[in-house]
Design brief:
The protein has 230 residues and is of the alpha+beta class. The radius of gyration is 17 Å and the shape is globular. The structure holds the ligand Nc1nc2c(c(=O)[nH]1)N[C@H]1C(S)=C(S)[C@@H](COP(=O)(O)O)O[C@H]1N2 and molybdenum atom. The site of the ligand Nc1nc2c(c(=O)[nH]1)N[C@H]1C(S)=C(S)[C@@H](COP(=O)(O)O)O[C@H]1N2 has 18 residues, from loops. InterPro entries: OxRdtase_Mopterin-bd_dom, OxRdtase_Mopterin-bd_sf.
Length: 230
């Protein structure tokens, strides 16, 4: 396919996805709740900057399953499959050739620490979805890490503009212990929804539980509803 045709297809698909999910996104709790639980001034999406039960930290703790996989850029792959029109397997160069987004957002860990104003660079999940085009029946994604971690996210959360597959933090390559070369971030959900060392995003016609969700963590993970466990 011609490069310009491909870009046109992606832009069209992005607009179509936006139209299809915009109402759902606008009615998610982190945008629409009128009695959110938390304290402080409104953040970027209108919620109290500190969600209920969270404590601010300047440090950046590391949480993992005891494995920190080492993946070189030449062996790194991102598989996009499941309920999509155009399944894909991206190399590092393919990934870096996609539109790049810079964003500042907050990070809320379910273990009660929050780190504010983190500066990220990466590819929007929305742009990855536009590339592969979720079928009409797709409702969720299941993300897989190179450490065999999994976590589920609904599409109305995953397609928010601040959900990135990030390769750079504070202007530097994402360190391995924080999920480098690439991790997902979900600033409007608890941070376990963002897989470190991400290597597969599977689009699904229904909700499927991930590693922590199978062990009693919430499927939805809304910080301003104290939605930690199910
Ligand atoms: N692949 C993978 N992703 C993961 C985890 C993990 O163990 N493996 N832990 C999750 C949890 S519980 C949190 S709070 C954040 C922590 O990210 P950090 O270690 O960069 O602070 O990553 C999430 N993503
Ligand atoms: Mo966590």
């Amino acid at each position: 396919m011609e490069e310009s045709d491909k870009l046109k297809r992606v832009v069209e698909a992005r607009m179509k996805l936006k139209a299809r999910f915009e109402d759902k996104i606008q009615s998610t709790p982190s945008v629409a709740d009128n009695k959110p639980l938390g304290s402080g001034n409104p953040n970027r999406h209108g919620m109290p900057v500190v969600p209920v039960g969270q404590v601010l930290t300047k440090k950046w703790p590391v949480l993992d399953l005891g494995i920190q996989p080492e993946i070189s850029l030449s062996e790194w792959r991102l598989v996009l499959d499941g309920e999509v029109e155009h399944p894909a397997e991206l190399t590092w160069d393919d990934f870096m050739a996609l539109p790049q987004t810079d964003d500042t957002s907050d990070f809320h860990c379910v273990t009660t620490w929050s780190k504010l104003d983190m500066n990220w660079r990466g590819v929007r999940l929305l742009d990855l979805a536009a590339l592969v085009q979720p079928k009409d029946n797709a409702t969720h994604i299941l993300c897989y890490g190179y450490d065999d971690y999994t976590t589920n996210v609904s599409l109305e959360e995953a397609l928010k503009p601040d959900v990135l597959l990030a390769h750079t933090v504070e202007g530097k390559p994402l360190p391995k212990e924080h999920g480098g070369p690439v991790r997902m971030i979900t600033p409007q959900l608890y941070a376990w929804k963002g897989s470190k060392w991400i290597n597969r995003i599977q689009f699904l016609p229904h909700n499927v539980l991930g590693f922590w969700e199978e062990r009693g963590y919430s499927s939805t993970a809304y910080p301003w509803r104290n939605d930690r466990y199910s």
